[in-house]
Amino acid sequence: MHENEISRAVVDGALTVHRALGPGLLESVYELALAYELAQRGLTVERQVPISIEYQGVPLGEGFRADLIVEGKVLLELKSVEHLTPLHRKQIQTYLRLTGLKLGLLLNFGAALMKNGIVRCVNGL
Known about the structure:
Blueprint: H1 3-21, H2 27-40, E1 45-55, E2 58-70, E3 74-79, H3 86-99, E4 103-108, E5 118-122
Parallel strand pairs: 3-4
Antiparallel strand pairs: 1-2, 2-3, 4-5
C-alpha cells in the first residue's frame, strides 16, 4: 500500500473512532481504539514503537516512542487536547525526520470535530 492509501484509511478510521467515543477521553483510549479499528480493516499496526536516536554517530538508545506506525510507512501521533500547538507540529516533524518515514498524521481526538483535528505532515518531499 502507498502512504496516501494508508492515510485515507487512517483518517476514515479516526473519524469512526471519534464518532463512537466522542472527544475528551485519554489519549491512550483513542490509541487502543484506533489500533483496533485499523487492524479490523486489515492494516498492520504497531503501538508504542521505540525509536532510537543517534547523536554524532553514537547510538544513544531509545529517544521516544511513536504512538502508532501503520504498515511500517505512516507514523501517527495522537493527542487529546483542546487545541494543537506549533510544538505538536514540530514534534511529529522531528519524529518523521528521525525515523526516515515520509508521512505522518497528527490526530487530535480532543477536537469537537475530528476533521478539525487532523494535520498531515511530510518529510523530505
